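Worked problem 6 (solution included).
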Amino acid sequence: MFKTAEKLKQIAERLSLPLIYKSSFMKDNRSSCEYYDGPGIEAGLHLLENIKKEFNIPILSDVHFPEQVKAAAEVLDIIQIPAYLCMQTSLVTAAAKTGRIINLKHGQFISPQNMSRPVKKVESCGNHNILLTERGYVFGYNDLIVDPRSFYDMGQLGYPVIFDITHSIRKYGIPSSDPAGGARQYLPTLARAGVAAGVDGVFIEAHPIRRMPYAMLPAR
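Solution. The predicted structure is:
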């Protein structure tokens, strides 16, 4: 994590782009109990807090249960709601009430217009610090497709739109460490398409080691 954060900061400084660092203290949506699911909330938040202090960069991570939100908000600058959980009212509102920036990942199963529903849940708590992250739509079995129209449609909701490029090419049920776990050949094309469409930032999985940290960079 520290090696990755250091390298990403060097890249961001060279490109004169702000950087948000993301790692998960817990991944509760793994397709098998045998896959690594993170160090847990206590150890994970401790690591993230140390990275925040060491490199002076904002930190983002995801929460899966309302009871995780309070501890997470003490460390995180941005609280992420996972795509599978974007319609979970208790989770979304608990995160919103912290006053932190909320990154709502678009659920693969709903239209871009219907992201207005979780947005309104955040707004109902008096929180208007919202990011919307596109990561593709379910297309048949175990595949995702990116519809560029969604960048426009979600942008009409009034908040910055982030394009999660690397998760949009994932193949369900295959671990990220397996090259077959994603159609990586499409990454450059999708990245250029998203930036050309005017997204406000990009979310990029980057890892020199097997366990995956992430980065989120603005597109401009």
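Discussion: The chain has a mean pLDDT of 91.
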